[in-house]
Design a protein that fits this description.
The structure is a homodimer. Chain A is an alpha/beta fold. The first copy, chain A, folds into four domains: 15-37 and 194-333, Molybdenum Cofactor Biosythetic Enzyme, Chain A (3-Layer(aba) Sandwich); 40-62 and 159-192, Molybdopterin biosynthesis moea protein, domain 2, CATH 3.90.105; 67-154, Molybdopterin biosynthesis moea protein, domain 3 (Molybdopterin biosynthesis moeA protein, domain 3); 344-412, MoeA, C-terminal, domain IV (Beta-clip). In chain A, 17% of the residues lie in helices and 29% in strands. Chain A contains seven helices and 29 strands. The first copy, chain A, has helices at 23-32, 175-183, 222-232, 247-255, 275-282, 315-333, 384-388; strands spanning 39-43, 56-57, 67-68, 72-75, 89-97, 111-115, 127-130, 134-136, 140-143, 153-154, 165-167, 188-192, 196-202, 206-207, 218-219, 236-238, 242-243, 260-264, 284-288, 292-293, 299-303, 306-311, 344-348, 353-354, 360-368, 371-374, 391-395, 401-402, 407-412. In chain A, strands 13, 16, 17, 18, 19, 21 and 22 form a seven-stranded mixed beta sheet that branches. In chain A, α3 runs parallel beside α6 (315-333). The radius of gyration of chain A is 33 Å and the shape is elongated. Chains A and B meet through β5, α2, β15, α3 and α7 of A and β5, α2, β15, α3 and α7 of B.
Chain lengths: 414, 414
């Protein structure tokens, strides 16, 4: 043999996990160790999709002035009393009010001001006579209908009154929310900081994503997949690249600046699985080995007060354990709901699902002709199974599975 | 009167719309005038959420080599035949194969190579004997179980075979899709170009979004709302700022470079509503005035071969007409589904909805205790109604509305 290889080396560590915790236990621990991050302010143009950090109350009335809702004439309503096509009442037109260019004098008795939709109602006027009920002459109009006070006038504060609650803390800002914030004069918004999530991919066999394929090497698929998942869940992925299977390099990556670490690969109990013992030694690793399939050889711990997720290198396991544990934690750090981000539909099973009592199963399915069809494809290493699938079914640990025809809840990937 | 104001000026144009087209007519015309844009290539790291422009087929096998699925020993299966705890068979350990560091010689009869999960299976070996069924001695192992050929071996092409279809054209790329593309050695991906959508906000009364409120002025809420909607629908918003109510400035904005124009404000038939006649004169304006509420004073046309949407300045009308017409067009240009992007739920009405035959209505509702409650709040100018609402109900033109308790489909804003 070439090098100082000793087949007995670390043989104890090849024996497997002593005990596997349940998914529920791990989620409960996470729930107690995951807290919303603090806030930051961002320009309004970057606020959509962010989570509002505090209730927003308006300091101003919107609109800040009474305005016309019609094209027509601003009048004193009393002057139109009794007007009809058979009793046309004359009013002197003394000017006009346009949007952004108000009439700067007052409307007196017997007077009118031509006004456009959205223009400020002049002082003295209390209603708008629509252009349709007016005969227009040179410097005067003949009113052919009457209007009551306030008619066709959008009142001050009609949309939002000064002092009113506008949006609640925790709101994931929608396009119209950003519009409303603009309308009350918000230039910047206080939102929950996006969690900075360091994605550490390990494995000496890996080529960086984007590389062409090479013999005896695997192109990293977990790195780009995790970056996309983190962004989906409102986090900001930090992707320093591939870290060699070397304890010092891994420890350095685990300790680098961020709000959370996702480490992919080397999460099990094999000879080159350094991360679990590093986290246990330099922080805490309360969970190593979870009763689930795929994804069993994973770990959850903390190091430097930050959550660390040790995700299996097998890509399906990586996706599944991310979605079970890391995704909800990122969403909660960012002020979002821990719930699964997938739409759900109910469909009958085309074929049975068999599961082992005591273990949570994540079964990829395809939807076809109204049926949910479990995909009979390989194990945790077959990532293409998740691109051929439309979603997945979860089998809880107290279930042995479901027979054909049973209605199951399908989480849709898209 | 101060300036050269003549109250008879343009009075014809104040009479309103001659005829309102139906929503269905406008959608049908749009369907015939909206075509997917061409493609561009982007780096893999920017591909998630983009639309695949062509089917992707793999040129390589993934993995590109047979690999071990266990920590153990690569062996010739035949050598283990008959092995058991009572019939331990000795094999000479001649080296090791690690991920990324394969064993570079062949395994002969009576030989074994220590192997880690994910490492290449050496030539000559055809199975992996798990570490758990082996007694390890100095330079040899004692097999305590037998394995059949192929056991614990991930075969070449197990995930993806060379030549296999991997992802179909039109797929909105999900995180795992990006992972699969990485695994087949994709560095760049051909995706549908994102539509460049120019957002032209008009109105002399408007202050730019982000400004503090000012007397007699309105802060632009449509601009930031439309930018967020365009981004949601896969477009790239171009936001040059507010354009004055001036025909030359508006024409210039309508003609500037982009794939589509959204013009907000000045879409009706008032004195300062220049855009409709500009589009009709320099292009075509087949639709002006749609039988819907809110949103009736809108227009749809083309100028320089590009779709132009004239959206009302009232923000609820702007949101609603965007969602009915502009949103689907942007999604189709970008290769996406024209369908409404909102989740739907069915709920009983808390109060009746009254609607006018011949008109499509967009009714904002709140969901409370399982009921859909129509919001009794103001008109098209009250944007805050859409932030207080959870979604909306559509009433088709052949309906007079629905009584309390009727089951309605609610489109959820979030």
């Amino acid at each position: 043999m070439a090098d100082a290889f000793d087949p007995r080396q670390r043989d104890v560590r090849m024996r497997g996990f002593a005990r596997r915790a349940t998914v529920a236990d791990a989620l409960k621990w996470l729930d107690g160790h995951t807290h919303r991050l603090n806030e930051e302010t961002v320009p309004l143009a970057e606020a959509v999709g962010r989570v509002l950090a505090a209730d927003v109350t308006s300091r101003v009335d919107v609109p800040s002035f009474a305005r016309s809702m019609m094209d027509g004439f601003a009048v004193r309503a009393a002057d139109t009393m009794g007007a009809s096509p058979y009793n046309r009442l004359a009013l002197a037109v003394i000017g006009q009010s346009m949007p952004g260019r108000p009439f700067d004098a007052a409307v007196g008795p017997g007077q009118a001001v031509r006004i456009m939709t959205g223009a400020p109602l002049p002082n003295g006027a209390d209603a708008v006579l629509p252009a349709e009920v007016v005969e227009i002459q040179r410097q005067r109009i003949l009113a052919q209908d009457d209007v009551s006070p306030g008619k066709h006038v959008g009142r001050l504060g009609e949309d939002i009154a000064a002092g009113a609650a506008v949006l609640p803390a925790g709101r994931v800002l929608r396009p119209q929310d950003v519009g409303v914030l603009a309308s009350i004069g918000c230039g910047r918004v206080a939102v929950v900081r996006r969690p900075q999530v360091r994605i550490v991919t390990t494995g000496n066999e890996l080529l960086p994503a984007g590389s062409p394929a090479e013999p005896n090497r695997i192109v990293d698929s977990n790195g780009p997949m995790l970056a996309a998942l983190v962004a989906r869940d409102g986090g900001r992925p930090i992707t320093p690249g591939i870290v060699p299977d070397d304890p010092e390099a891994i420890l350095e990556a685990l300790r680098a600046e961020c709000d959370m670490v996702l480490l992919s690969g080397g999460s099990s109990v094999g000879q080159e699985d350094y991360a679990p013992s590093l986290v246990a030694e330099h922080g805490e690793l309360p969970f190593h080995g979870i009763a689930m399939r795929p994804g069993s050889p994973m770990g959850i711990g903390r190091l430097r007060q930050r959550l660390v997720f040790l995700l299996p290198g097998n890509p399906v396991s990586c996706l599944c354990t991310y979605d079970f544990f890391a995704g909800p934690a990122i969403r909660v750090l960012g002020g979002r709901s821990a719930d699964w981000p997938y739409r759900r539909v109910v469909a009958p099973l085309r074929r049975k699902i068999v599961s082992t009592i005591g273990r949570t199963e994540y079964v990829r399915v395809r939807l076809a002709e109204g049926w949910a069809e479990p995909l009979a494809i390989g194990g945790a290493s077959v990532l293409s199974s998740t691109t051929r699938a439309d979603g997945f079914v979860l089998v809880p640990p107290d279930s042995e599975g479901s027979p054909p025809g049973a209605e199951v809840e399908v989480f849709l990937y898209d």
